Amino acid sequence: MKVIVVGGGWAGCASAVSARKLGAQVTILERTDMILGTGLVGGIMRNNGRYTAELELSYLGGGELFNICKQCCKHDNINFPGHAHARLYNVGKIHGAVKNFLENMGIKIEFMSRAVKVHMENNRIIGVEDDKKFIYEGDVFIDCTGTAGPMENCSKYGNGCAMCIIRCPSFGGRKSIASLAGVKEYIAKRKNGQVGAMSGSCKLLKESLSTEIQEKLNKDGVCIVPIPQELVDDHLGVKACQQYALKEFKNNLIILDTGHAKLMAPYYNIEKLRKIPGFKNVKYEDPYAGSKGNSIRFIGMCPRDNYLKVLDVENLFCAGEKAGPLVGHTEAIVTGTLAGYNSVKYICGCSMLSFPRKLSIGDGIAFVNEEVKSEEGLSKKFTFSGSVYFERMKKLGLYSVDKNEIKDRVEGLSLLNILNSK
Ligand SMILES: Cc1cc2nc3c(=O)[nH]c(=O)nc-3n(C[C@H](O)[C@H](O)[C@H](O)COP(=O)(O)OP(=O)(O)OC[C@H]3O[C@@H](n4cnc5c(N)ncnc54)[C@H](O)[C@@H]3O)c2cc1C
Q1: Half-sphere exposure (Cβ direction) of 23: Cα atoms closer than 13 Å
Q2: What pLDDT score was predicted for residue 237?
């Protein structure tokens, strides 16, 4: 049983773990020299409804990657505007920890292997070819290539390449397996009709900030600095992460300590930043051209069902941002885990699993799929951590931070540890 996962972001890693636990031989193809993709510059977990989603998946038996985030945690149970009980992982530690975990499980990771072609027999993929002309044959394939970039999209729909963590000039741009297999993908729109959305945060070198800000970050994990009116740079409308598009994020610099100083703004003119108290010597860490812009995402998502099987190709699954505008690491781990599990069930001819709508993770996956069918839905982004979907979670009574209640919900559905059952 061979599963080939293309893309080593959080979704790819979760798919690989889940498929491997069911006994499959798993290979991840990753175009860069590191796994975790945009997760290399993220870090926020467990804020708002992500807490519930994390626990639901853990009680279903899929908690391994969340445990690694806990081990690499820099701050826990912190609050910032609109967001409660967040955990921040250390972006300097997370890569090594996840890579070691995957390798110890016997998952093969092929770095600098950019998939550029698919080999098909009728409607079935038999192999994926990378840019060095190696062909990886498999029984089933999972497209976890994300939606960020490539550079043409950042130029056409954004402010040009800002030299972000995706590193297209060095490793070649993102390439979608579904689209190579002939699937017609869909794209997200902004409210003003523009295509895609811009990534919503950047990293500053913590050491380039004033001692007071560094101390506050090290102690509390959060630092909120009011912006003098004349220096406000308002980019809320372009943000991919609508859960942070609140007025507090326009009028203040909201900085979180993820090892670096995570500035909750898509980009910010560095000349203006330098005039804000505490930022005189500020330096960008990601994207390097954070004065100018950030990556464009949510272009090229796959039509799929709630098992995360891609429609119209026999043996292709998808997860993470590829599976729809469900934004975030938690969301990528949830969909990745389901896609990995179902990919193995599919090869074995067993019935596949869709998470029940009585759980937020089941409702979230199904709801996004319904929403993207309308023009209005295509202009929204969904996440357990805020905005429209968190409101829905609260309205449906799905949001909870009570561990026993969440466990009872999973147990009541007879799904406790289901993801570990072969
Ligand atoms: C700057 C930034 C900050 C963020 N901060 C947070 C945060 O704090 N908390 C949070 O929850 N979410 C955050 N997010 C969102 C979150 O990172 C993503 O929604 C989620 O991690 C997406 O995971 P993914 O695996 O679907 O895609 P990606 O992370 O985009 O991973 C896709 C992977 O596929 C690889 N790939 C692409 N094409 C190919 C190919 N043809 N062959 C081989 N490999 C390929 C890429 O190199 C990449 O490693 C942030 C996003 C950005 C951009």
Answers
A1: 6
A2: 63
293 C-beta closer than 6 A to ligand 1 = no
Q: Nearest CA to 389 among 412, 367, 421, 358? A: 367
What residues in the chain have per-residue pLDDT under 50?
Answer: none
386 lines ligand 1 (CB under 6 A): no
Contact 158, 240 (CB under 8 A): no
Report the predicted TM-score, pTM, of the whole model to 2 decimal places.
0.97
Backbone angles phi, psi at 136, to 5 degrees: -105, 110
Q: Which residue has the tokens 């560095």?
A: 270
The CA distances from residue 387 to 80, 160, 327, 359, in Å, are 15, 28, 11, 18
**Dist CA 188 CA 335 (whole Å):** 19
Coil vs helix vs strand at 39 = helix
> Which residue's CA lies nearest to atom 51 of ligand 1?
38
Residue located nearest, by CA, to atom 30 of ligand 1: 146
| Alpha-carbon gap, residue 266 to 219, rounded angstroms | 25
Write down the pLDDT at residue 378: 87
